[in-house]
Design a protein that fits this description.
Layout lengths: L5 H12 L10 E5 L3 E2 L5 H17 L3 E3 L2 H10 L9 H11 L3 E16 L6 E15 L5 E8 L5 H14 L15 E3 L3 E3 L5 E3 L4 H9 L13 H8 L2 H4 L20 E3 L2 E3 L14 E3 L2 E7 L6 E8 L8 E6 L4 E5 L9 E8 L8 E10 L4 E10 L1
Parallel strand pairs: 1-3, 1-4, 2-4, 13-19
Antiparallel strand pairs: 4-5, 5-6, 7-8, 8-11, 9-10, 12-14, 14-17, 15-18, 16-17, 18-19
Helix pairs in contact: 2-5
Amino acid sequence: MKFVPKILLFLLLLLMSNSAIAQKPNKLRIAILDLNAGVNRSQSQIDGLADMLSVELFNSGCFTLIERTQVDKVILEQNFQKNSLSASQRKKIGEILGVDAIVTGIVNFIVRDTRWGSDNSSKFDVGEYNIDIRLINVENGELLSTAGGEQKNETERELMKRIAKQLADNLEIPNNYNPSQSSPYLLYDYLYVFPEDLGVFSSAPSSLITATNKNSAYGYNDWRLPTQEELDALNSNRKKLRMNSNSFYAHDKSWTYGKSEYAVRLVRTEILLQQESITQGNPYFEPKICDLGKISVLSGYARGQFMLKNPTKNSISIISVSNTSKAIIVDVDYNAINPGEVGVINVYYNPNGKQGLSFKHTINVTLSDGQQYSLQIMGSVE
């Protein structure tokens, strides 16, 4: 084994003391979008400002940045318009890039004076930038920091340096923030991926996997090595899963033909219904009650998930969802769910201002076949 990763250390500590020590965060992983041209500016006139801001945000020491060429590549692949991105499109970009937050903003030009050119035959405007920058949480759309103001007797580089410092100084990171993913990734609505590597091994780490499942890491006890097909899916989503670009990862047969070193990332699956078991039964949710347990009032939105399984011979879809609390945000997959497939409802609960309270809220769901379901999300806020 080449090194001992933090998950192994976590498991060893858990086995000895049944407790774990959370790491303090220090950096946010961010992507910077092109700044938008506002009043009296064309897009070409401000294109370089975002690059300057990238450098200054990196130099602040508070952020890990995704290369802007990667941002442009994702926007092109998704066929988005760079200068008119919606909130949902920004979220999609952030998810693909595997970032915590997106930087966006608008630049106006305030005309202060009009002067004659050197030839005394033409006039040009003299003025200052007015800039507003926002740092937006990819997961829930909340503002993590803002910066802005007018350019005052300073160069564009000095302006961007000042804006970067403001963003860093105003940054509010939840106490439980972890710069690595704090819960399993979900690919294709059924494949759960461990949020970090176990390490690099010259043979299958069977004992470590057993210990991982014994302690129900991240709430599950059926983690395993991926199949070759599942590993192909992981490799296709390396950036999103934050897999090491320089490592070869193992599948369940990797060590069959001799000893080689492989990085290990575990997976688990929501077992899909087999075609032969599809009947005329009714669609059903699993679970029907989601218990979020104890939530810190400072933790930000807590997520619960309901899986809609379709054992029928017909496609179904969710057509309406309502809930009983403004503290809940419901993210619904409205796409058709074919026979044997699974749909997802993600529910986010905001504990802000609810310290010391227990909650139980109902989510009402109507399907395209007319059936109605009542789901519950519950927990308490510390």
